[in-house]
């Protein structure tokens, strides 16, 4: 059943909605923080969004419930992290050792249980509506933060559900369509020339396209589509000629000591590429890791591949950014479209459950080593007031110095805020 989608009446929340906060953090502390004029200044100049497509189980990852009945707590046990009092799933041991580098946001909740609409919501921070396509995080970051002209500003590995929306095609991502393989130079269409095509030959083709563009401009001088195509054509041409871009994508040239922790799996290699792109100066990278739609054999699927891959790739990405002095200036945001049912079903799986989910945030001024928010004893919903995807989005933009309340205009001149209903989760920033 497709959930109802609502029209876009604009409201503003004057109160930051939040669940129970970590041990030792009382209501008075929260009120002081939430009423402060501003959270700590933003630090990030780039970002990596890791999207766990399908909806990962919050209980079996970063919000374990060891005291719940067996049919709720599942087959996995929690383990201690390097942060006293914080536990995560036993199959995330590498992430447990560096829990001081990231914040866990529990008690995130919404009401969209369908994959496509849930993904739209979590990819833009605005609840989907029929009348407007909201731009995803990468499009907004590309618009707001100037980048190196020799590099793409928004790279998706290997693809992304994020859209340019009403901002137009010029802010769409460069999608790699594949992931790197160990020891093999990574070829990205539009960067590495294939089929024997030389730069000289490409220049000839580019000159021909320029002549054709002149004709098109005469017909549709104000077309955003043509404008965007011009931008992409020039960017692709610049990138093909740029040794800087080709070097950034070439994971095979990475030092073995840096590459080894990422392993040889698809997700780990994608994270290695993300690290190289950020180090080179790319503003926004999204890494898509699907397979989390575990209606059956949830524990087998998680233990057999999903959790070990997440543990290896994400821990290596965070550690790599920190070792290269890039974590403070790079926001890392990990999220899926929803959580999964607290009660295990008859197929040893968990079904869609948007009422409770978890997200991770690191870098960009986020205070690591903390848990913000909580779910109830069975993981069925927030223990108190919920966080929303809108608030996650507002907090993400805050790390980059982007005011989520800033208004853009659609092609028809309609003003729309970047995040219409969000507010910054101030405890994230210490």
Write the layout of secondary structure elements.
Elements: H1 27-34, E1 46-53, H2 70-73, E2 78-80, E3 87-89, H3 93-97, E4 102-108, H4 115-124, H5 137-144, E5 154-157, E6 174-175, H6 199-219, H7 224-241, H8 243-249, H9 256-259, H10 266-280, E7 284-290, H11 298-323, E8 330-335, E9 339-340, E10 352-353, E11 357-362, E12 370-372, H12 389-399, E13 407-409, E14 415-417
Parallel strand pairs: 1-7, 1-8, 4-12, 5-6, 5-7
Antiparallel strand pairs: 2-3, 4-11, 8-11, 9-10, 13-14
What does this structure look like?
The protein is an alpha/beta fold and 430 residues long. Helix content is 32%, strand content 14%. It folds into 2 domains: 27-183 and 264-429, Alkaline Phosphatase, subunit A, CATH 3.40.720; 187-249. The protein is built from 12 helices and 14 strands. An 8-stranded mixed beta sheet has the order 6-5-7-1-8-11-4-12, with helices on both faces. A two-stranded antiparallel ribbon has the order 2-3. The radius of gyration is 22 Å and the shape is globular. The model is unreliable at 1-37 (pLDDT under 50).
Shape: globular
**Topology as a string of helices (H) and strands (E):** HEHEEHEHHEEHHHHHEHEEEEEHEE
Termini separation comes to: 41 Å
CATH architecture of the largest domain: 3-Layer(aba) Sandwich
Give the C-alpha Rg: 22 Å
Structural class, from secondary structure content?
A: alpha/beta
The percent range for helix content is: 25-40%
Total number of beta strands = 14
Strand order of the largest sheet: 6-5-7-1-8-11-4-12
How would you sum up the major sheet? 8 strands, mixed
Number of helices: 12
What percent of residues are in strands?
5-15%
The CATH topology of the largest domain is Alkaline Phosphatase, subunit A
Return the average pLDDT rounded to an integer: 85
CATH level 1 class label of the largest domain: Alpha Beta
Question: CATH homologous superfamily of the largest domain?
Answer: Alkaline Phosphatase, subunit A
- The domain count comes to 2
User: Which stretches are low in confidence, meaning pLDDT under 50 for 5 or more residues running?
Assistant: 1-37
């Amino acid at each position: 059943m497709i959930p109802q989608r609502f029209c876009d009446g604009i409201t503003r929340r004057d109160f930051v909605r939040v669940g129970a906060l970590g041990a030792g953090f009382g209501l008075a502390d929260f009120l002081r923080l939430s009423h402060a004029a501003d959270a700590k200044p933003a630090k990030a100049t780039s970002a990596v969004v890791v999207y766990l497509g399908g909806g990962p189980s919050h209980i079996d990852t970063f919000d374990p419930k060891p005291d719940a009945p067996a049919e709720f707590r599942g087959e996995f046990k929690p383990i201690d992290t390097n942060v006293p009092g914080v536990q995560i799933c036993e199959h995330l041991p590498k992430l447990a050792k560096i829990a001081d580098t990231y914040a866990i946001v529990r008690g995130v909740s919404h009401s969209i249980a369908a994959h496509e609409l849930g993904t739209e919501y979590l990819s833009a921070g605005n609840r989907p509506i029929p009348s407007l396509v909201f731009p995803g995080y990468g499009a907004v970051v590309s618009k707001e933060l100037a980048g190196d002209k020799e590099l793409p500003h928004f790279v998706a590995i290997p693809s992304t559900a994020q859209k340019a929306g009403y901002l137009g095609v010029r802010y769409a991502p460069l999608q790699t369509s594949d992931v790197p393989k160990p020891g093999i130079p990574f070829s990205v269409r539009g960067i590495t020339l294939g089929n024997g095509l030389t730069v000289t030959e490409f220049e000839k083709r580019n000159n021909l396209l320029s002549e054709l563009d002149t004709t098109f401009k005469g017909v549709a001088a104000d077309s955003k589509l043509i404008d965007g195509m011009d931008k992409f054509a020039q960017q692709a041409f610049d990138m093909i000629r740029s040794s800087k871009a080709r070097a950034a994508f070439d994971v095979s040239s990475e030092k073995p000591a840096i590459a080894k922790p990422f392993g040889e799996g698809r997700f780990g290699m994608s994270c290695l590429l993300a690290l190289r792109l950020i180090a080179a100066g790319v503003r926004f990278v999204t890494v898509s890791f699907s397979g989390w739609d575990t209606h059956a054999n949830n524990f087998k699927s998680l233990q057999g591949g999903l959790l070990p891959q997440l543990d290896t790739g994400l821990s290596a990405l965070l550690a790599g950014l920190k070792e290269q002095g890039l974590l403070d200036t790079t926001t890392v945001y990990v999220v899926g479209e929803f959580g999964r049912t607290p009660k295990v079903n008859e197929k040893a799986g968990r079904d869609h459950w948007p009422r409770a989910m978890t997200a991770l945030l690191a870098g960009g001024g986020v205070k690591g080593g903390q848990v913000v928010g909580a779910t109830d004893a069975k993981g069925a919903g927030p223990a108190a007031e919920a966080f929303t995807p809108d608030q996650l989005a507002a907090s993400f933009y805050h790390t980059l110095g982007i005011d989520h309340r800033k208004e853009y205009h659609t092609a028809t001149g309609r003003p729309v805020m970047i995040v219409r209903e969000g507010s910054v989760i101030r405890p994230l920033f210490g």
